[in-house]
Amino acid sequence: MSTVNHSKLGASPPSEFNVADSKGVDLLHSKAVGLAGVLFLTVTGAAPITAMLLNVPIIAGFGNGIYAAGTVLVSTLILLIFSVGYAAMAGKVSAVGGFYSFISHGLGRELGMAVGFCSVVAYSVFEPSLAGGFAYFANDKINALFGINVKWPYLAMAMIAGISVMTYFDVKISSAVLGVALVAEVTILLIFDAGVFSHSGNGVDTSLAQLSPAGAFSGFPAPGKLAAGIGGIGLFFAFWSFVGFEMAPNYAEESDNPKKIIPISLYVSVISLGVFYTVTTWAATSGYPKFTDLIDKAQNSPLTFFYDTSTRTVGPWATSIMSYLILTSSFACGAAFHNTAARYIYSLGREKVLPAVLGKTHASYKTPYVASFLQTGFAAAVIAAFAIFVGSDDPNGQAYGQVYGLMALLGTILILSAQAIVSVAIVVYFRKNHPDEHHGWKTQMAPIIAFVTQVGVIYLCVSNFDFIGGTATFAKYIIWIDLAVFALGLAGSLYVKKSDPEKFARIGRLIYQGVPDGMLADAEHAQGLAP
């Protein structure tokens, strides 16, 4: 497709540019992964064991109490409805930009670029967030094995360095490593679930009442000296458990037959994760049939919330395996977010919204290695900043409570906001560009419901922000940081629109329409990618 300066010719610029035809654009490794590979890259981003061990104590202890499983179930239903329109959009627009590209097509380049900046920041902060969670559990494990108390920033930095090395190489390597980690953690959690339910009635309460959807919107009064629960907090952290499944469109250019694979992977991800999370959360809370025991353990000993039940219902061997897999899972989850952040940065770089060097790919591996190194530097800087200003001697309060919790809070608000805006973009895009395919449910009602419900979750979070942020000074600035990022992206887009119309025309519009097999084979042979 031509890339001449249409503004000078007085003609309208094309609505899309095929990335394979665009000169000066470094391409990713086309057809590198199939459906299984995309699932490994995205479902691992949701990190089942990390999501469960780190988030369920918060959902139950500070949110919905015995209705934690019902809260996860409600989150599943909302995200499934969101996926209906999201999958339809993915079937039309194949681009590494994900949210950025979808919103650009539906609501304009200005809003697309603003949300693109928000997406970069969101996925970028998730890596240091997971590094904080990794350091929390790693410190405990090393202390138990060797009696050594390693300061958490060193452990977090080690994880970030390891991710940087792995993601430098071909995306196939990341897919394989994340796949192994995913299978292992799902297996141990299934064993945990089976162990708990096999003890039903024997110190375990598996009452179906715990699955009540109404419980997702209710908290509980303070039991004794413990804190009260707030329904919105539980619902918010349930959504945070799912963050990662929506990354599938970002791998469109590296997948085989993206218009088919990406929509399928979205449905498979949200349904499988939703059922699995709901059952595992139900099992976890069932291990504490006394309400006060459940809340006390969740609030005061979150690290052993799963471990105590696992030891009692399955055996110490399962708990031991779980204590190792939480480390590999945190690493894998951080790597998945690193990959997505790098691809957003790469997308903005190749469209020259950010410095063009960020749009370069490795000559042999075809990975966005410059953007990946930038992401590594950012994640390390976040850890260093927390270590300097918060301290490095309290893994529980600093690594888990602040780095993990606050970075997750900052990023998840941005992701939920982006998903809400994407929902509106889907309705507008199909109505304007594909009126013959504008479906009453898929591209209208489902996205509208998704928009309303996700805005509601954001409201519940913001209205309880003082409680969620606790006494951490940084928490007071999270909302303002999120708004500033959006404003910066919007202002940048308006500047580009005025100063460089040709560049503005390409914002969010570099679309992967496929590379001819002959051209692909020749290119990969020359780069050593083909056998």
What report would you give on this structure?
The chain has helices spanning 6-9, 35-46, 48-64, 68-90, 99-107, 109-146, 152-168, 171-198, 231-242, 258-286, 291-300, 305-313, 316-350, 369-389, 395-433, 441-463, 465-469, 478-499, 501-505, 517-526; strands at residues 17-18, 510-511. Helices cover 69% and strands 1% of the residues. It has 531 residues and is an all-alpha fold. It has 20 helices and two strands. The protein has a single domain, classed as Amino acid/polyamine transporter I. Helix 3 packs across helix 13 and helix 12 (305-313) packs across helix 13 (316-350). It has a two-stranded parallel ribbon with strand order 1-2. The longest helix has 39 residues, at 395-433.
Profile the largest sheet.
2 strands, parallel
What series of H and E elements makes up the topology?
A: HEHHHHHHHHHHHHHHHHHHEH
Main sheet: strand order: 1-2
**Quaternary structure state of the chains depicted:** single chain
Radius of gyration over C-alpha positions, nearest whole angstrom: 23 Å
Instruction: Determine and state the CATH class.
Output: Mainly Alpha
CATH architecture: Up-down Bundle
> Could you tell me the strand content as a percent range?
under 5%
